[in-house]
Amino acid sequence: MQIVVAGQGYVGLPLAVRAAEVGHRVVGYDVDPYRVQQLAAGQSYVRDVDSTRLRAVLDSGAYCATADAAALAGFDIAVITVPTPLRDGVPDLTYIESCARTLGERLRPGATVVLESTSYPGTTEELLLPILEETSGLKGGADFLAGFSPERIGNKRWSFDGTPKLMSGIDAKSLDVIKGFYDGIFQTTVPVSGPKVAELAKLLENTFRFVNISMINEMAMLADALGVNIWEAIDAAATKPFGFTKFTPGPGVGGHCLPVDPMFLSWKAQQELGIPFRFAELAADVNLHMPDYVVRRLVEALSKRGIPVSGSQILLLGLTYKYDATDLRNSPSARVAELLIGLGAEVRGAEPNIPDNDDTGLNVPRVDATPEEVAAADAVVLLMDHPRFDLAMIEEHAPYVLDCRNRLSGANVETL
After folding, report:
1. Structure pTM?
2. Helix/strand/coil (H, E, C) string of 224-280?
3. Residue from 330, 271, 325 nearest 83 by CA
4. Of the candidates 138, 152, 128, the residue with the CA atom closest to the CA atom of residue 78
5. What is the CA radius of gyration of the chain?
6. In three state form, how does the secondary structure of the chain look?
7. What was the pLDDT predicted at 57?
8. Measuring CA to CA, which residue among 384, 159, 347 is closest to residue 254?
9. How many angstroms separate the CA atoms of 248 and 217, rounded?
10. Considering 64, 99, 257, 404, which one is annotated as catalytic?
11. Cα dist. 3→10, 76, 117, 253, 394 in Å?
12. Pair type for strands 90-91 and 86-87
């Protein structure tokens, strides 16, 4: 089939390459010309797709990248994988709206449009479908098919195609076609009764993680005040073979999902029902202030050592929002750096997963985590324990470490 994947980021590019590998003709569409230039040159910027795989589907002719909307004409299935950020707490769906108009202008009878971008329940049927109908002059269900299938990207233990794929359709025929498409890409597909169920399922998945991370973050603060090792308590609780899921504390949450997705549901509930989603709002408040807690702990530790935070040398290790990632979106490291700089500290950052010539936007000098840099710091803060960090070297050379990941030990180390 002729497939369009609109949006060639961390969700769209893996799907486009996999669809090309299983035999479809795939157009990867993105409005960013620099991204398209990189893809056309066989250079992947997404960790889940290495450049060798990208070049293979380019060379075979099964995949091409374009910023030209005219190249989308004639598609059998189009999948929308564009960003859905929050703007001042309000869902910004302008990327979906713009993409829907672009596809609607090229929508033909019998074609299918699938939304994968995360949003609140009702987005597919109340926003996407009317735009497609208005722009194309066709009727959803009668003339074209549509549905929602949430992305599930980002787990190191599960492969892209090995992760069960949820899907839905606006009617039975839509679901049948959408399932047929995804059956050829994923090992397991899970159909549900309608788009609102699939949309809510995605928000439920991420809200579950968000609330539990916030709970363990708050418990870590309480445990420290009580003089209890939270990490030992977590490991002890995890020996129970039922009724407990292990979560660990950290300097905060970041990325494109966890800080954003639960607030879609909170916004929808408040706007349409007048009902607050209190768990999500409380979790957001706790996680938002975890960087403040990290800085407070660091200031207290420096004070005990007779070192004022103003003028101190602080080395932040790991600036991305999660382990071994290359993504800085909403990373708590930005807030940690901002607070420390505001207190007069001289802050440097080491991030081996992002090239030194890439602007991190954190306004801190970039350095390598060498023995000399580690030893020169008054304090080292391990924000993210990337595998490229030499943890034994850090233990040996750092005068003091605030370990936010429970990976280090020694008299010079304190854990969060």
Report:
1. 0.88
2. HHHCCCHHHHHHHHCCCCCCCCCCCCCCCCCCCCCCCHHHHHHHHHHHHHCCCCHHH
3. 330
4. 128
5. 23
6. CEEEEECCCCCHHHHHHHHHHCCCEEEEECCCHHHHHHHHCCCCCCCCCCHHHHHHHHHHCCEEEECCHHHHCCCCEEEECCCCCEECCEECCHHHHHHHHHHHCCCCCCCEEEECCCCCCCHHHHHHHHHHHHHHCCCECCCEEEEECCCCCCCCCCCCCCCCEEECCCCHHHHHHHHHHHHCCCCCEEECCCHHHHHHHHHHHHHHHHHHHHHHHHHHHHHHHHCCCHHHHHHHHCCCCCCCCCCCCCCCCCCCCCCCHHHHHHHHHHHHHCCCCHHHHHHHHHHHCHHHHHHHHHHHHHHHCCCCCCCCEEEEECCCCCCCCCCCCCCHHHHHHHHHHHCCCEEEEECCCCCCCCCCCCCCCECCCCHHHHHHCCEEEECCCCCCCCHHHHHHHCCCEEECCCCCCCCCEEEC
7. 98
8. 384
9. 8
10. 257
11. 18, 6, 17, 34, 49
12. antiparallel
Contact criterion met (CB below 8 Å) for 383 and 316: yes
Q: Output the six-digit token pair for 222.
A: 């309480």
Distance separating alpha carbons of residues 303 and 182, to the nearest angstrom: 57
Closest CA to 335 of 353, 354, 316: 316
The pLDDT of residue 258 is: 59
Tokens of 415: 């854990």
pLDDT tens, 212-264? 999 999 999 999 999 999 999 999 999 999 999 999 999 988 766 656 667 77
Distances in Å between the Cα of 114 and the Cα atoms of 380, 382, 400 are 46, 41, 51
Which residue in this structure is represented by tokens 């590019």? 13
CA distance 351 to 362: 11
Distance CA 114, CA 107 (A): 12
The tokens for 119 are: 């949003």
Q: Which of 405, 359, 353 is nearest to 380 (CA)?
A: 405
- The pLDDT of residue 28: 98
Weakly modelled stretches of the chain, pLDDT under 50: none
Please state, in angstroms and as integers, the Cα–Cα distance from residue 182 to each residue in 77, 157, 171, 186, following that order: 11, 21, 17, 6
Asked if 386 and 324 touch (Cβ cutoff 8 Å), the reply is yes
Tens of pLDDT along 340-349? Answer: 999 999 999 9
Instruction: Identify whether 257 is a catalytic site residue.
Output: yes
